[in-house]
Amino acid sequence: MLTKLIHLALAVAWTAVIFYDLFIMKYPRGPPTRLANLAWRFRFLTVWNMVLHCIYFYVSFAGDICPVVCGDKKKKCWLLSVRDNLFTAVVYPTSLFIPVAFWSLFMINRELIYPKELDAIVPLWLNHFLHSFIGVFVLLEAMIVHHEYPSLVKGFLQVAIFDMSYLMWTFWLRYYTNEWVYPVFQALSPIGLILFIVVSLTVSFFFYWLGRALHILRWTSSGTKQD
Prior knowledge:
Helices cover 75% and strands 0% of the residues. The chain is mostly helical. The chain is globular.
């Protein structure tokens, strides 16, 4: 019951955060129309992750009540497979990568990732919701819910597909608008940008591997079978 309540509460909370971020908060440099502003906001990985969190926790809650909906407690509901793949390959590694990357760059030079002018626009609670609490949420989820992880190779492939999708989107926006999504990209040389991307992908792969390793340690020690 507690797990169901946590999933539902976080799903509702993320719904409220998305509504506030996309429809209420106004950026001075944003496009004038609402539709264009929505597209403009989806430049950021944090917005992708915000939406993924919301989808994940709704899917998780549906999976919690899946035996009631499907009427078969012995057969694994397809929603649980969707939940596990979404969490292990996308939500977990991305939600650990963002806090590490964001706060590391913030401490080096905040203008590279989060210019000071945003302090007057983005509430402190929203900043931490998007860049800090996401890590806490996935670590808590990993501790209280057993997920089936794919093989290491398949997992790395899924992480790579998601990360490369975002990178392609970033480069397309650079080509279309002649402006980088993040100031740090503008500050780097071409070689530096390549190294930054390689390191970022490596960190994402590491967090997937770490999540899988901790998952096996957590659930094997508790007697739950890991497929």
